[in-house]
Amino acid sequence: MARIKKEDIFYTLLKQLAQVLVRAGEEYVGIISDYPNTFARLPRMKMVEEEADDCVRDIMTRLYTSFITPFDREDISELALAMDDVVDYMEGVALRLDLFNIQQMRPEAIELANLTLVAVNYMQEMIEALPNYKNDETVMKKSIEVGHVEDGGDSVYENALRTLFREDDTRGKESLAWLRLFDRMEHCLDACDKAAGVVRNVVMKSS
């Protein structure tokens, strides 16, 4: 009877981190879609962010003590940190909703949050297929799809700023708050594409 090959620990840990990203994305959308009515959910985002930090810490610790890794240790490190940045940006947006005393949600923010959830779901599919990245086209396909989502986010971001600064009733403090929020939401999608870019490079180096 053939033995089933045990999965490399780094793939397992990256999959765990990807699961945390999806939970963060779901919480992110849940908070933003009905804020400020969802104010009480803000601490949940912090908890998820701390869980992501724990996952990354575990990956980094093992990188320092492992002689053999499934692909370049620099790529593993960069991928884990980029994935962690995604959660950090989401948690940062949620925190700033309170700090900036946001009282009414803008539709572009909801759209950007939804795009982020789409991106992290693609990222999870990408990471799930990563152990077989040399043979499974899913890895490259999903990494490219993350890039397409990020491109869509750029359009939403530009439209959000255009609308924000052309409104007659926009006040200085409010517009500044939303500028910073939209910037951070756009950076979150950029971080998604950065993580996907690391994976694209891993695949290309093996071809």
Secondary-structure blueprint:
Layout: H1 9-33, H2 42-65, H3 73-99, H4 107-129, H5 138-164, H6 172-206
Helix pairs in contact: 1-2, 1-3, 1-4, 2-3, 3-6, 4-5, 4-6, 5-6
Supply the key terms:
207 residues; mainly alpha; Methane Monooxygenase Hydroxylase, Chain G, domain 1; 6 helices; 0% strand; elongated
Characterise the protein shown here.
With 207 residues, the protein is an all-alpha fold. The chain has a single domain (9-206), classed as Methane Monooxygenase Hydroxylase, Chain G, domain 1 (Up-down Bundle). It has 6 helices and no strands. Helix 1 runs antiparallel to helix 2 and helix 1 runs antiparallel to helix 4 (107-129). The longest helix is centred in the C-terminal third of the chain and has 35 residues, at 172-206.
Instruction: Tell me about the largest β-sheet.
Output: none
CATH topology: Methane Monooxygenase Hydroxylase, Chain G, domain 1
Unreliable spans are none
Taking Cα atoms only, what radius of gyration do you get, to the nearest Å?
Answer: 18 Å
The CATH homologous superfamily is called Phosphate transport system protein phou homolog 2, domain 2
Count of separate DSSP helical elements = 6
Outline, from the CA principal axes? elongated
User: What's the level 1 CATH class?
Assistant: Mainly Alpha
Structural class: mainly alpha
User: Tally of extended strands?
Assistant: 0
- Which architecture would the CATH scheme give at its second level? Up-down Bundle
Q: Number of domains in the coordinates?
A: 1
End-to-end distance, in Å? 32 Å
| Global mean pLDDT | 94
Helix content: over 70%
The string of secondary-structure elements, in order, is HHHHHH
- Beta-strand residue fraction: under 5%
